[in-house]
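During the reporting period the student researcher (J.K.) took over the structure-prediction task from the postdoctoral fellow and processed the backlog of single-chain submissions. One of the processed entries is reproduced below for the supervisory committee.
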Amino acid sequence: MYRKNRSPLVEVLESRTLLSGTAPLSTPAPVRAEAPLTVDRAVSERTTTVLSISKHVSTLGQPLKFTITVKAAKGAGTPAGTIELINNGATVAGAGSELVLTLSPKGRATYTFETGNIAVYAGVHTFSALYIPSGSLLGSISKAVTILVKAPKFRRAADGLGTATVQNGHGKATIGDGQTATVLYTGFLQSNGEVFDYATSTSHGEGAPTTLTFQINADPEQVINGFDRGVRGMKVGETRDIVIPAALGYGISGSGSSVPSNADLLFMVKLLSIT
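J.K. obtained the following structure tokens:
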């Protein structure tokens, strides 16, 4: 299924598996202290970078669209190069490296933080966008934009499993025992918001699955117990936040270097299909 020379993409714990991402996304590369600006070039080579965000107050699991526009002085040409996003003073990381966005021919780049992608945990975040030119224009950094991501109100089971729907699905059908779910997800350590796992088109390497597919209440379980139970009852298109106590997750053993012993987890899950 996977090439042997790749790092393991599926971790097995007591006959249960959950797709594992690469390096934790929230372990950022060191951010540059300032944009690569100099003052001895022509005024016509200077640029202006503007960052706009779709929502300034959001709920964990709801999409946040970032739009970055870079403009140059008249006659200096269209800016070309890349954008790095900075969150609370650190460069936002992708699958084990910096998240780098390429400017379009119109000098614009977009990125959506959402389930199954690099995601923004609950709390206050201050973002800015750093333009790194590929030509003679000067780099620039945007003004900071502050957003608040709120945790939803969870419905709790007696054993501590918590669920909250943050985006509604469609139709009447809900997924139940014996059916197969195809999902996107982002997994956080609840204690500090560090992303330890996610399923998306780029998380597990070239040629790897873009989603996670598993059977609900399979015997033996195909995913950790809290994930299995937390997805039950979802509709197609629904996004749900799921809090998983350690006892329903990886327990005292943890999972490799990414999930420590007795760690409570929080997953954002979007159900793509039911079969």
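The committee noted the following: DSSP finds one helix and 19 strands in the chain.
J.K. will present the remaining backlog at the next meeting.
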